[in-house]
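User: Sequence recovery, please. Input:
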């Protein structure tokens, strides 16, 4: 049997020392990791617990449990507070972000309003200084409320020809238009037009300006009458917001037979000289008749619950609020007219009127509850211009002349020229009287009251007025404190007024 010789256990010192070094390093890393984990590397002794022979063991265990519960409750409360604080900080951050964005938007809107107002002021200055004939555009539904006494007085002083243009004549019955022509015709030339309804009346307007027109027009005028009218060299269109200035300018350019360089490019926007409105109720009703509802806190009113409480106590309404405007409407028109217009039961007071209107229209909030009086009043005013519509009745000729106390016939260049213009007006009035009443024949008639907001014409021309009021983005700004806006959606805004009820 063969025996193998075992190998020697001797090793080189370099290998021996390297092994020892690696062992030391390994143990050092283990101690380091144990220290990080909170383990000292030594085995902990097991807690023997409370011996059963301890006389107060039950009390001690109860105390320990209470301490543990308190500790856990403290941890839960701390976590809840931290979570609540984080949510509050996040909400504050979002609120601050929204506030910064709102301030930025408000600043941009203000800057844009200032720029638009300055542009409109400069346009009005150019139109007034460059035009020899001024067309003062009046909404046919309330012509006196669209007149500017300062503009007419300035035109009389400067000797400039001024012609009243009753725009949107298709929204009023022909008989009412003729009555307005007679009422205003004592002071100056008047021509009704419907720029967006077939450009009716535009040929007659061009003939009053001594310019040829493409269309023949409805009124037939003798050639010698046309030859007596002086030719306008520069015509400017001026008027308050949303009276139809741009539509008239466009229709005149389309109807002009040979070019239209004599029509000034700019449009004169008239606005109140200050934010003070003497009769806010009359101003709000004027806008409602023309299909424009004002904006602002006074118009929106208080919450539904507070509004109902105020109505029940017969509280005095703030001027310019919806209920105050309806009350002013009731003063300027007979109750029988409103009953026929809205086909409702008889009433004697404003609360009865609003209650009957809400009952007839079945106006309710999203919760199915009756609307607040403010919401009902806004709805009533919003439906005024709908068919058959409403308009202001022309006053007597003497009363109409006393509103501005101006005579603009002399500026047309003599009796023969004024007679020619009057002959054109009579021919157009005869054509209108031959027509039937149409859908607006049964429109609600409201008594007229006062001219439009005062305007500082002298200050604008002198350059001392740089801002004549707030402006909207479409360059058809507001009049004084009252802003132009779209008609309110009936169910939307009124339902929101009741959303926080109860």
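Assistant: Recovered sequence (502 residues):
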């Amino acid at each position: 049997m063969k025996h193998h010789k075992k190998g020697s256990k001797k090793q080189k010192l370099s290998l021996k020392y390297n092994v020892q070094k690696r062992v030391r390093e390994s143990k050092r890393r283990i101690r380091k990791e144990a220290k990080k984990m909170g383990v000292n590397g030594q085995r902990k002794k097991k807690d023997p617990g409370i011996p059963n022979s301890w006389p107060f063991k039950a009390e001690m265990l109860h105390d320990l449990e209470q301490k543990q519960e308190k500790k856990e409750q403290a941890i839960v409360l701390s976590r809840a507070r931290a979570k609540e604080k984080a949510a509050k900080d996040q909400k504050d951050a979002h609120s601050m972000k929204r506030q910064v964005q709102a301030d930025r938007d408000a600043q941009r809107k203000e800057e844009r309003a200032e720029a638009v107002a300055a542009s409109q002021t400069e346009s009005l200055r150019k139109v007034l200084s460059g035009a020899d004939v001024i067309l003062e555009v009046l909404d046919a539904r309330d012509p006196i409320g669209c007149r500017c006494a300062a503009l007419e007085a300035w035109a009389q002083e400067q000797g400039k020809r001024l012609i009243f243009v009753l725009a949107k004549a298709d929204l009023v019955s022909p008989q009412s238009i003729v009555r307005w022509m007679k009422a205003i015709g004592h002071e100056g030339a008047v021509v009704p037009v419907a720029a967006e309804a077939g450009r009716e009346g535009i040929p007659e307007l061009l003939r009053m300006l001594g310019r040829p027109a493409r269309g023949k027009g409805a009124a037939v005028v003798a050639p010698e009458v046309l030859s007596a009218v002086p030719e306008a060299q520069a015509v400017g269109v001026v008027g308050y917001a949303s009276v139809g200035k741009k539509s008239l300018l466009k229709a005149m350019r389309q109807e002009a037979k040979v070019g239209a360089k004599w029509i000034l490019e700019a449009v004169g926007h008239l606005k109140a000289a200050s934010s003070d409105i003497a009769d806010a109720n009359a101003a709000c009703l004027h806008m409602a008749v023309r299909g424009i509802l004002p904006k602002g806190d006074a118009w929106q009113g208080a919450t539904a619950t507070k509004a109902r409480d105020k109505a029940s106590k017969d509280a005095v309404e703030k001027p310019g609020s919806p209920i105050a405007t309806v009350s002013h409407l009731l003063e300027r028109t007979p109750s029988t007219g409103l009953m026929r217009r809205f086909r409702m039961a008889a009433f004697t007071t404003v609360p009865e009127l609003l209650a009957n209107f809400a009952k007839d229209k079945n106006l309710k909030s999203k919760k199915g509850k009756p609307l607040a009086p403010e919401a009902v009043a806004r709805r009533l005013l919003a439906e005024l211009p709908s068919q058959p519509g409403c308009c202001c009745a022309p006053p007597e000729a003497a009363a109409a002349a006393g509103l501005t106390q101006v005579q603009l016939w002399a500026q047309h260049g003599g009796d023969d020229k004024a007679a020619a213009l009057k002959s054109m007006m009579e021919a157009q009035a005869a054509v209108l009287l031959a027509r039937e009443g149409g859908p607006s024949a049964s429109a609600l008639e409201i008594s007229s009251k006062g001219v439009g907001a005062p305007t500082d014409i002298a200050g604008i021309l002198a350059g001392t007025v740089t801002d004549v009021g707030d402006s909207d983005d479409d360059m058809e700004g507001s009049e004084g404190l009252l802003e132009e806006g779209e008609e309110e959606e009936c169910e939307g805004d009124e339902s929101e007024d009741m959303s926080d009820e109860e």
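Residues 213 and 379 are 43 Å apart (CA to CA).
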